[in-house]
Every structure is written in structure tokens, then in C-alpha cells.
Amino acid sequence: MKLQKMLEETGHSAFCSEELESVDIKGIEANSSKTEEGYLFVAITGYQRDGHDYIQDAIDRGAAAVIGEQNLADLTVPYVRVENSRDSLANLAAHFYDFPSAKHIMIGITGTNGKTTTSFMLRHILEYAGYSCALFGTVHNVINGQTYDSKNTTPDSLELQKLLAKSDDDIVIMEVSSHGLAQKRLEGIEYDIGLFTNLAHEHLDYHHTIEEYFEVKQLLFSKLKEGGQAIISTHDEWGEKLTDLLNQRKIKVSTFGKTDKDDLIFDSKSDVHCSDFQVTESGKQLHFQMTIPGLHNIYNASMAYLTGRKIGIESDRLIDAFKSFPGIPGRFEMYSHPNDATAVIDYAHTADAFSYCLKTARDCGAKRIVHVFGFRGDRDESKRDEMMAVSSQMTDCTILTLDDLNGIDQNDMIAELEKYREASGKAADLIIPDRTLAIKKAWDMAKAGDWILVTGKGSEVYKDNYELPSKSDQETFALLIDQNTTIAT
């Protein structure tokens, strides 16, 4: 593909020149080590590394041209200086791969909590109805029925276009993170349906204020195709605010909430701890039987259901599909304890998510709740007070432990945990820095009717080493369950 044509058709015509007319581009890369003969190398100013420092390496590997932001001269290949190379990469990648999102029904899901669960539920019910679905998200990516590791909730713009081009699926379901929106990873993609689950205190180390966080989240709905639709949960003020905003823009909006103005109305008398719930749609009451408990999962299921309806699937078929939903790795993943207690692993890492998980345990009849969690190093510290307050108020014992340190000194993090344990004022609360031993302590404490909740990592692999020979919370539980495994502590 001719570079001149690519630039002209992506709004970069001002940079065109006779020098570029003969440059033929065989691929695009932002990683110099992956650059091959005839590739266009785009230098991105990252958070840890600056791609401009690797331009010569890309040229040595065969780059035919380079795009960047700095004023550079004397390169041996054509160089195009742009204002924002990250934006340019996204648009050029979409063009190079011939706008692959256009061949799919595109569904984007944003919000603080519930993106992963909603996406898995949605994929399950759509495939039950006969559609093939790609899935891009936090746990893994699924393309053409094959599962691939996921590095980020929302892939970078170049990887995303490659994956979309690879997919032959009818529908693409994407978790859309605020980082993905802020960093322009989604340029060149238009969505048929956009979902908004909720907004809570999270990522304010990056977005600074909850208002700025909301403004970034709502950018998803500026990427709807003409005639595209929004599906919004109105259970918090941000859902209501977004609904009003999109109505002003004349965008089609369907809502799930608790008032007569909502398209899908939740029946507050639903027996949520038994995973059964009722909703009303167009005056008709519908009864759902779920495989996982919790009010938050009812919200997620309702969003998925509304999306299925907008695609045109019959109500009865969708309701039937939920009965066989297999669950999600690391999302309210339940384990049976030999003492007739219940153990749960969940990705919850905000006060709001804690509240839903802990309330579900109590609604399900928990006699005692033991909550194991830690704070992630080098992440939003402003949410920690709320997280500790919720855990302290809703549990019988909180065991504070380590999460990913991310370069933070372990002793400094332990001192931080001490501060929060002292502030809780609960004698039952403990600090056990080794995450695997913290989980074992909760396991050993459990009696009939108790619930153990281990939150923060879900299905993620540990970054740090611990005493027990396990690499995740899931493997730690597997060790504890296996009666043939001897664990020395």
C-alpha cells in the first residue's frame, strides 16, 4: 500500500510530498524490534519508553518510512512529523487493515465494574442463539473460537486492528477501558451498540477527578455508527447523567433500572441470593434463573439481555441461555470448603465492587465473612480508605495481604497495611503479607456457613513470589482443596 495514499485518506494530506509517492508500505509497527523490511515505523512517546529513541533500530531492520512527533533530520528514509503519533498510528492501522470493524456487529462495553462479566454473559447468550462471537477483554481474547492471552483490557490500536482483521466472527464484543479511550486506541472503529455499566471511584491517579473519568468513559458513545444504540444502567447518577447527555445528542438509548421510564425494569422483590430475578419489559414480566448469585450479576445479566434483544433475539431464547451460563474465571468463582463453608475468588478492587460481593455473601446466608485483599502498588491510593471502610463494616474479619507490588518496597506496603488495620479498630483484623498464607489462614478459620472472599486478582497470575507453590489465587485454593497435597507453613 502506498504511503502517500494512506496519508491522504487518513487526514494527513498536508504531510504528503513527492518523496512519499513511491514508498510502498508492507506493514506497520510501533515496536522497533518487530519492524521488518518495507514497514512503516511509528514512534510513540510512551510512559516508560520513547519510540523516537528506537527509530534508527527500526531503520536498520528495514523500515521504509518513519512517523514521529519530534523535529528530526538526516534520516536515511522518509520521515513524517505529526502532532500526535498515537492518533496517527490508530488511523493508519485502521486504513492499512481496511477498516475491519465494518465487517462485524461491534459491541463496546464500558464502565468501572461489570465489563468482563457482562461481556462473557453476552458472548454466551449470543452464541446460544447461533451467532459466532469474538471477545476482547481483561481475562483473554477469543477470535474464531480460539483463545489468546490478553495483555490489556483494550489492546493497543495496532494490535486491535490486526485482531479485528483476523476475526471472521459475526459479532465482536469488546471491553472498552478508560485508558483505551484516553489513549486513542479505538480510533477508526465504530460501534453498533455501546453499553455503560456504572461508574465508581477508580483510576483517579490517571484521570484525577471522577468528572474527568466520566468524560473519558462517555467518549465510547461518540464512536457509535449512524443509527447506533446505547444501553445504559441507570442505577447510579452517572448512568442517569449519560442517558440525559445522549438523549440531547439524539442517540437511541435503552435503559435498565428501577423506574417506569426504563426499558427493562428490575423487580426489587427478586430473590437475588438464589440467583433468580424478575424484570418487566414492555409490560411483560420475565423470570430469569442464573447460575451465579448477586445483585451485581443481575445487573450484568440484564445489560446483556437488553443487548441481545436489540440484536433481534427472542426473549425466551435469551432467558433459556442464562440457565447454562458457565461463569467467568476469577469473577465470583465459588469453591466448596470441606467444613461446609464457601470460598469465592473475585476481581473486585474498588469499594463499590467490594460492597456488591460482600452483600451477596451476606444475602446468601453467610454466618461469618472473612475477606482477604491487598492494595496494588503504584496504583490509585485515593480509593484505599473507601475499600477498607467497606470491608471493615461488612465483614467479621479482614485479612490484609499483598497484591502486586509493582516496584513498591514490600516493607513500605506492609507499613501501609498496618496503618489501615489500626484505623479499622477491629481486633479480629489481621495482616499476613504472604498472599498464599493469608488465604490459607482464612481457609483454616472457616467453619460451617462461613464465607471466604479473596478479592483483587481474580484469575490473574501472581507477579511476586509467595511461600506456597501456587501462581494465582485459583491455584492456591486448588492446593488447599487437594487432600493429597501436604502444605508446610
Automatic annotation (TrEMBL):
> For this protein, what is the EC number?
6.3.2.13
The organism's place on the tree of life at top rank: Bacteria
**Which keywords appear in this protein's UniProt record, sorted alphabetically?**
Ligase
Q: What class of enzyme is it?
A: ligase
Q: What is this protein called?
A: UDP-N-acetylmuramoyl-L-alanyl-D-glutamate--2, 6-diaminopimelate ligase
